[in-house]
Amino acid sequence: MFAIKQAISLPLNFEMAATSEMIDIALEVKPNAACIVPERREEVTTEGGLAVAGREAQLAPLFARIRDAGIRLSLFIEASEVEIRAAAAMGADIVELHTGRYCHDAAGRADELVRIRQAAALADSLGLECHAGHGLDFDTVGPIAAIPQMHELNIGHFLMGEAMFSGMDKAIAEMRRLMNEARPS
Question: How large is the greatest C-alpha to C-alpha distance in the chain, in angstroms?
Fold first, then answer.
């Protein structure tokens, strides 16, 4: 991680669990941002994001260490009002909205897109930078990229799989094209 940070000119962002061990590593490396994600098996990201609401007392000291080090705090959460408000109250800079249900439930996709749009608007109104990710692919990225408050999309797994067949440059170029076409003018 130290070598990567020295070798790149772009911001380095961590995706990590809310554990003292992981936070110690982040404090040594000093990434631009630390995105806190579920770590336990019952917090599997395909089922949802990190539960912040109701765990504030447990998470507050860990999150404070990140913020006090000047690292942007990002929380990978469900697109729900209660989680977004909890993230804002905890001092998060960024929320990354979980898009797994939107991507994997074709029958409920339209309703889930409405929920994600509303969550992005709420996050923005509370001063949170809004990101999204999990399960996005060529077929699902457009409507999420079109959300005006969306600043960043995280699409690693699909791109790596697609790159095996078409090459990394082509996979990224196609994803970028689809995202650009979807963005509001």
Answer: 47
